[in-house]
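Example with several molecule types.
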Amino acid sequence: MKPKIGFVGVGIMGYHMASHLLDAGYEVVAYDVFEEMLKKIVAKGAEGASSCKEVAAKTDLVISMVPDSPDVEKVALGAEGIIEAAREGLIYVDMSTIAPGVAVKVAEELGKKGVRCLDAPVSGGESGAMNAALSIMVGGPEDLFNEVLPVFEIMGKTVTLCGDNGAGQTVKACNQIQVALNFIGMAEAFVLGAKANVDPAIILKVLSGGYAQTRVMDARGPKLIRGEFEPGFKSKFHLKDLNIIMETAKELNVPLPCTAVARQLFNAMIASGRGDLDHSAVINIIEDLAKIEARTSLE
Amino acid sequence: MKPKIGFVGVGIMGYHMASHLLDAGYEVVAYDVFEEMLKKIVAKGAEGASSCKEVAAKTDLVISMVPDSPDVEKVALGAEGIIEAAREGLIYVDMSTIAPGVAVKVAEELGKKGVRCLDAPVSGGESGAMNAALSIMVGGPEDLFNEVLPVFEIMGKTVTLCGDNGAGQTVKACNQIQVALNFIGMAEAFVLGAKANVDPAIILKVLSGGYAQTRVMDARGPKLIRGEFEPGFKSKFHLKDLNIIMETAKELNVPLPCTAVARQLFNAMIASGRGDLDHSAVINIIEDLAKIEARTSLE
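Resulting C-alpha cells for the full complex:
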C-alpha cells in the first residue's frame, strides 16, 4: 500500500516535487507558511493542512523543502512541529539544503520519539524539480533509504545513499564548494582574458575543449559571454550554501582557503543587488573589481 | 617545399615534438643547453647545433620549448640568440608557456629585424606531446598562423588562433586559472567530506555525475582517492604558470582573488617538497592544514 505523504514547503521546488507525487497517485497532505503556495498545490489535488503537526498526524511519511536550517528546526522540532505528532512508525525526510549538524540533531531528537529520519538534499534546481530529474543525496540508515527509494525515484533521476544521517547534507556541501570554485575559475579567467583583449568566445572554445572543461562552463559559458544571467540557481541561495559550508568547516576545524574567498565574492553579489541573478553572475564581481566587462571584446 | 625547422629546447616536451617533425620528414636542426638532451634528438636524426644563433642561421622556422619567460628572452634576444641571425623571411614560434607581455616584446624586437613571430603554448603535458595530441593556443597574424598550421598539426590535435601576438599565452593563462581552481575545489570538497566521515568514493561519484563535474575530476579523481599523485603535470610547473598569471594580472590591473590564494597553495606545495607531484596533489596542502587524510574513510 502506498504511504500517505505529507509535504511541508510547496514553493518553487516543493510545488513541482509534490505535484509529481500526486501525479504518481500518492495522497498528499500539504502545508506552507504562505497561503498562496498552499492554495496552488491544493488546486492540484493535495489536502491542505494548517500546521506541520497536522501534516505529521495525518500521514506516514513527511517531506520538507524549506529555505534554511532554522526553518527545518522549526518544522521538525518547533511549536506545532512534527515532534508534536511524533510516533513510532513515522518517517521524516528533509530535502532542504541545510547544515549537516542540524540534520543530525533533528534525526536524534525525532529519533527519541520513534521517528526515523533521512536528510536528502537535491541538486538540479527548478528545472530538475519540474522534470523529475533531481540528483538526490541521502543520509541515514540503509533500510530506511530502501523503504523511501520508490518515493525519491518519482522526484529524481539519480539517488545516492551517502552515509549516515547528515552525510547527504555533507555531500551537497562538497558539491556546492566545487560548483562555486568552477564558476569563480571561469570568472577570473574570462576577466583576465578580456583585459588582455582576447575574444571570450575563443577562451570558451579552448577551455571547454580541453583539460579546463567543467559542466558549469558547458551549461552557462555561452550565456555568460552574452551577458545572460537569468537563474538557474540564484546567487543568494549559493551564498546561503557557502555560509552553511563555512559554518560546518568551523565546527569541524577544516580550513577552506578558496571557499572562504568564494563566500566573500558571493557576499558581494548580494551587496551589489545581484542576489537574484544566476550564480554564474559572480563574474560581475570580478568585472567590477577590474572595471571591465568581460564580454566587451566579443562581436 | 618543406621548411627546414630549428628546435631549441629538446627536453621532455621538446624531444617528443621534434621527433614527430623528424618522423614527418622535416629536416630538424636542434639545440639544447643540456648536451644529454641534444644527443638524444641527434640520435633520432636531427642535426645538432651549438647555439640558438646557429639554429636560426641554418633554418627557415625556429621553434622553442623552454621552461620560462627569461629563457625565451635569452633564446630570442640574448647573446648568441636568434636575433643575431635575424633576417627577412625567418619565422620564430615559441611554444613555451611564458608571460604574454614577454611574447609581445619578443615579437616586437624580432619584428624590427624582419622576423615574423607566433606564441603557441600548449596543453596536454608529456602524454599529449608523445601522442601528438597537444592543444595549441596561438597568438599572431592570421596569415602566418595559416603558413605554420601544417607544422602545428604534426604536433597537436587542436590548434586555435586566439588573436594577436600574446593572445596564445593569455588563453593558456586563462586555462591554468580554471584548472587550478577546479583542482582546489576538488581538494577542499574532499577534505571537508573526509572530516565529516563521508566516503570519498561517494563524493566523487555524486560530484562527477552532476553539475560539479570537471574534466580534471574525471581524469584524476579516482587516482586522488587512491593517493596516487604521479605526474601528469608537475605542481612546480603549475606554480610557475600561476606566478606568470599573477604578474600579468598586476600589469593589467586585474584583481584575481581566488587565483591569488591558489598561488599561495601551490607555493606551499613547493615548500613542503611536493613540487614534483601532480597538480592534483594540492589536496595534500588542505589535508595538512586540516590534519586529516581525505582518503582515510575509503575502504
